[in-house]
């Protein structure tokens, strides 16, 4: 399941080769097993509730389209209502978001499923992903190096296939550097 494209995954969901719940559980397990320090927290309860809704839709005979049922990661500077949003900063370690960021809400409304809040430089400021209260994000292919960029957690999760896609940011190379 984990090395497919969005369309391939969705085709397999539609053909009932696996359930959305199984897919989300697989990705959450990958996130939890990661040794790259790419993740600040999982959104397991939210993700499993959304996956169950997708599974109900498929069970009724409806076909998924777009990005419905696809698990994704969220850089921890973007808010998801009711979840802790630290921006990888000690100042916000207990901040619970009162709303969901518009960009993330649009993805959720389209049926995508957020599964993890990803490590980043504090408040997205930095270029190596070493400036985080949670510690540096390790390179996806060489743990002796850093991921780079302030969106290193997002890039590492995609590179290691822990998420199907991830939302990062790009102000000064935040996602371009680790993607490179």
Please describe the topology of this protein:
Layout (H helix, E strand, L loop, with lengths): L5 H9 L5 H14 L5 E4 L1 H16 L11 E5 L26 H8 L3 E6 L33 H8 L5 E3 L8 H4 L1
Parallel strand pairs: 2-3, 2-4
Antiparallel strand pairs: 1-3
Helix pairs in contact: 2-3
Structural commentary:
The chain has 180 residues and is α/β, with parallel strands linked by helices. Helix content is 33%, strand content 10%. It is built from six helices and four strands. A four-stranded mixed β-sheet has the order 1-3-2-4, with helices on both faces. Helix 2 runs antiparallel to helix 3. The two termini are 25 Å apart.
List keywords for this structure.
single chain, four-stranded mixed β-sheet, 180 residues, 4 strands, 33% helix, alpha/beta
In short:
With 180 residues, the protein is α/β, with parallel strands linked by helices.
The low-confidence parts are none
Sheet with the most strands, sense and barrel status: 4 strands, mixed
Distance between the termini: 25 Å
Give the strand order, joined by hyphens, for the main sheet. 1-3-2-4
Rg on CA atoms, Å: 16 Å
Helix-strand sequence: HHEHEHEHEH
Tell me how many strands there are.
4
Q: What is the overall shape?
A: globular
The percent range for helix content is 25-40%
Whole-number mean pLDDT: 93
Q: Compute the number of helices.
A: 6
Structural class computed from helices and strand pairing: alpha/beta
β-strand percent reads 5-15%
């Amino acid at each position: 399941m984990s090395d497919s494209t969005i369309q391939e995954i969705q085709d397999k969901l539609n053909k009932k080769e696996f359930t959305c719940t199984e897919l989300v559980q697989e990705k959450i397990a990958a996130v939890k097993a990661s040794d790259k320090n790419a993740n600040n927290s999982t959104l397991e309860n939210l993700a499993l509730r959304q996956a169950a809704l997708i599974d109900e839709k498929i069970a009724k005979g409806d076909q998924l389209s777009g990005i419905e049922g696809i698990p994704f990661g969220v850089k921890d500077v973007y808010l998801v209502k009711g979840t802790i949003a630290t921006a990888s900063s000690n100042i916000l370690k207990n901040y619970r978001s009162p709303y969901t960021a518009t960009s993330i809400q649009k993805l959720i409304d389209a049926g995508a499923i957020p599964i993890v809040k990803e490590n980043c430089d504090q408040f997205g400021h930095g270029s190596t992903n070493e400036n985080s209260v949670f510690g540096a994000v390790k390179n996806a292919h060489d743990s002796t190096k850093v991921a780079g960029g302030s969106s290193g957690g997002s890039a590492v999760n995609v590179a290691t296939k822990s998420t199907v896609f991830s939302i990062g940011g790009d102000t000064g190379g935040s996602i371009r550097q680790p993607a490179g």
